[in-house]
């Protein structure tokens, strides 16, 4: 059996390999990078915060523009729908009066239709008020604080 060569361990690393291998640095510790000045760090932080604030403002402006566009067209189409509903309700009311008039007379027919429409308006107004409270609750920023005030 041959003995290992005692001079083999003292041979330098072959060229082309990094000088640091497995945590062993033959020339000592690597030089630490120079410290970054505090004013450069602060300047970078301010620039990043400024860029984030500008992006947030652009997002808020874009959302506002989209909301304005949606509100404009929603209100326009809603107005047309409300006008059509009004005309339809008038047609139903006149038709109901014409159908009831021969049986109970024109004044009683008008009062019956009027009472039915007032009852319908009261019910739908009550339901609208109920849902408006839900909308107000959904749009609150601080639900816990405002709920505590109402109690």
From TrEMBL:
Organism superkingdom: Bacteria
Transmembrane segments: 76-101, 107-126
Record flagged with keyword Membrane: yes
Compositionally skewed regions (Low complexity) per UniProt: 1-11
Keywords: Membrane, Transmembrane, Transmembrane helix
Segments of this protein annotated with the region Disordered: 1-24
Protein name, per record: Holin-X, holin superfamily III
Organism of provenance: Sphingopyxis panaciterrulae
């Amino acid at each position: 059996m041959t003995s290992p060569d005692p001079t083999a361990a003292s041979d330098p690393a072959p060229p082309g390999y990094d000088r640091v291998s497995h945590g062993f640095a033959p020339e000592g510790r690597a030089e630490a990078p120079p410290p970054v000045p505090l004013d450069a760090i602060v300047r970078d932080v301010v620039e990043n915060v400024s860029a984030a604030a500008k992006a947030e403002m652009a997002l808020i402006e874009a959302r506002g523009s989209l909301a304005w566009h949606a509100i404009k067209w929603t209100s326009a189409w809603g107005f047309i729908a409300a006008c059509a509903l009004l005309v339809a309700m008038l047609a139903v009311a006149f038709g109901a009066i014409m159908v009831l008039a021969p049986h109970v007379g024109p004044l009683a027919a008008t009062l019956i239709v009027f009472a039915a429409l007032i009852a319908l308006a009261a019910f739908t107004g009550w339901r609208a008020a109920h849902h408006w409270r839900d909308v107000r609750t959904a749009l609150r920023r601080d639900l816990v604080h405002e709920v505590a005030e109402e109690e």
